[in-house]
Amino acid sequence: MRRKAGIVIGACAALVLAGSAGALVARTSENPAGTWNEAAAAVPRTVDTPVAENTTTPATPVTSATPATVIPSHVTSTTVAPPAPPAPPASRAPKKKTKSESARRPLESATVPPAGRQRIGSLQRVDELLGYLAGPKRQEFAYPGASYVKVHFERLDMLPGDYVTVSNPAGTESYRYENDADGRWAMSVTGDTAIVEVHRESGATGTLSSLGVDIDQVARGDRLEHRREESVKVGPAGPGREESVCGTDTSSDAVCYESKDPIAYTKSKAIARLLINGTELCTGWRVGAKNRMITNNHCLTNSNEAYDTEVWFNYQCAKCGGSDVFKPTKVWGDKVLATDKTYDFTLFSVDGFDKIQKFGYLTLDTARPKRGQELYVPQHPAGEPAKIAGSKGEAASNCAVDNPDYTGYAAHSDVSYFCDTAGGSSGSPVISRATNRVVALHHFGGCPNSGVRGDLLAGRLRAYL
Question: Low complexity composition bias: which ranges (predicted)?
Fold first, then answer.
């Protein structure tokens, strides 16, 4: 079944959040998704760079209450009234598709992603069979210099009790999958090598010639620093200008704030790097105490997209300016609960909420932002480990509310600012230093950049949160 048995195997020391200013060391006998590695166990820093800018407008809005329903194209904006919460299903099967449909699907790397998503890495077609009578039991996919490797199974057809694992060479990151005749993406493995192996546990015999594990695609991330300075033509924010560095990029690694601005550092733990379809990026964050994530509508619109989206928490540098990162906690997106094109938001849940609860959450500010209000923006620009724009005490003109009555997709919908962002920052929270609440959902660039007002979102999402 869908993601029924994806697990992480291995043992490590872990850090957990403690209060608002730091972390305590804890020991565990295993390394479930969600633990923090100690700095000594950090892995080499992996930075993903967009390879193409996006100039198209966001997709037609979709609302979802399991399953998602498509809004007619003539409808410009809709927020769904929340239905009575359904009982969670015992298992969630993916959308059925035939093998011929899968073969006809174009490679994502050969298409232009929706506006606002930033492309990283590449996707290539492969034809590998791991099986019983045909094909090896173990296959290595190595791409020197890649920041991650992610395989797609066209089918997983095994005897009951048998399973397949996708792991890094050291075995410190490993995910297990059981039968799924319709195929699925595996969770990415951090680093440049993924090992796929079939495990025979059942001992059963019978007709084995038709059984096997087919791998038809592999996505891999590029590793390269994004530009620290960009020449940006100052102009109105809007579609096709989703993120901008205004002059010199003054954002810093989130960990640089640990001692000088512990509240901002702690709040940054609630954000996540979104890896969509294996090769596209946005930022998302936990909103409220429930199983709720929010990002832009131009990043996600429906549950099918959410199913194939990896949500990475704790993807942060181990030391300020260092080259090592903590091992991220990776969970899958789940159901889209509400989405709106005009206010450019999508609210969704994740599969594996218990693994990410410890990272905390952010709260929408119900008060309208005011001109000059100082801000900070935790984000994953270009897919990098978490950064924060807006240093404490920084000149208000650089990261502060410039216009509290700015036009986004609608008049009066946005607030503008000059906080630095970059490709992949779409969906980041814009936080008030006065309240440490979210006053905007970042979505446009142009210097000034702009985000949808948090008070408007609070009103539309109150019933869900």
Answer: 49-81
Q: How far is 191 from 46, CA to CA, in rounded Å?
A: 8
Task: Give the whole-angstrom CA distance, residue 191 versus residue 169.
Answer: 9
**Domain residue ranges in the chain:** 121-220, 227-461
How far is Cα 246 from Cα 413, in angstroms, rounded to an integer? 22
Say how far apart CA 91 and CA 315 lie, in whole Å.
29
Q: Does domain 227-461 have CATH number 3.40.50.280?
A: no
Picking from 407, 415, 261, 254, the residue whose alpha carbon sits closest to that of residue 322 is 254
Spatial distance between the Cα atoms of 272 and 379, rounded to a whole number of angstroms: 8
Q: Tell me, what DSSP letter sits at residue 456?
A: H
224 CB-contact burial (10 Å; exposed 0-12 / middle 13-18 / buried 19+)? middle
Could you give the 3-state DSSP secondary structure of residue 268?
A: helix
Q: How far is CA 68 from the centre of its chain?
A: 20
Measured between alpha carbons, how far is 303 from 16 in angstroms, rounded to an integer?
A: 30
Lookup: tokens for 118: 């930033």
Both tokens of 312, joined, read 């990475």
Taking CA atoms, 247 is separated from 55, 107, 233, 262, in Å, by 22, 35, 10, 27
Separation of alpha carbons 329 and 272, rounded Å: 9
CATH class as words, domain 121-220: mainly beta
**Rounded CA separation 131/148 (Å):** 25
- Asked if 263 contacts 464 with a C-beta cutoff of 8 angstroms, the reply is no
CA-to-CA distance for 350 and 297, rounded, in angstroms?
A: 16
d(CA 191, CA 166): 13
* 457 vs 294: CA distance, rounded Å: 10
pLDDT tens per residue, the chain (465 residues)?
Answer: 444 444 333 322 222 223 333 332 222 223 333 322 323 344 443 333 333 333 333 333 333 333 333 323 333 333 444 444 444 433 344 443 333 333 332 322 223 345 557 777 788 999 999 988 777 899 999 999 898 999 999 999 988 889 999 999 999 999 999 988 888 999 999 999 999 999 987 666 666 777 889 999 999 987 644 443 333 444 454 444 444 556 555 678 899 999 889 999 999 999 999 999 888 999 999 999 999 999 999 999 999 999 999 999 999 998 998 878 888 999 999 999 999 999 999 999 999 999 999 999 999 999 999 999 999 999 998 888 999 998 776 544 479 999 999 999 999 999 999 998 888 899 999 999 999 999 999 998 878 899 999 999 999 999 999
SS3 (DSSP) at 163: strand
Rg (CA), the chain: 22
